[in-house]
Amino acid sequence: MTLKSAEIIGLFGLIVSLASIWLHWGMQYRLANIEDRQKDGHITEQAAVAKMRFWKYFAPTLTLVGLALMGAAAYGLLT
């Protein structure tokens, strides 16, 4: 792996990780908003459960993807 490609992959991993941190930070407000919309009757209970499940899995998955990208970049720089 060239230095330039490792830097690009590492930068992309950093951006993905920062986006996942932002998603984790606002998770409680996002989930509360979904719950309020369900209580107000704007969405069904099944839709609310599906949306909550998506957000609960999406943010941690994005964190792992960012870490994997940064790890791949570090491995590329060290080898």
Question: Could you characterize what this model shows?
Answer:
By secondary structure, the chain is mainly alpha-helical. It has one domain (3-78). Helix content is 89%, strand content 0%. It contains three helices and no strands. The protein has helices at 3-25, 27-39, 45-78. Helix 1 runs antiparallel to helix 3 (45-78) and helix 2 packs antiparallel against helix 3. The protein is rod-shaped.
Q: What can be said about the biggest beta sheet?
A: none
- Helix/strand-derived category reads mainly alpha
Overall domain count: 1
Shape: rod-shaped
Residue runs with pLDDT of under 50 for 5 or more positions? none
Question: How is this fold's topology laid out?
Answer:
Blueprint lengths: L2 H23 L1 H13 L5 H34 L1
Helix pairs in contact: 1-3, 2-3
Provide the descriptors you would attach to this structure in a database record.
single chain, 79 residues, mainly alpha, 89% helix
Describe what is shown at a glance.
This protein is an all-alpha fold and 79 residues long.
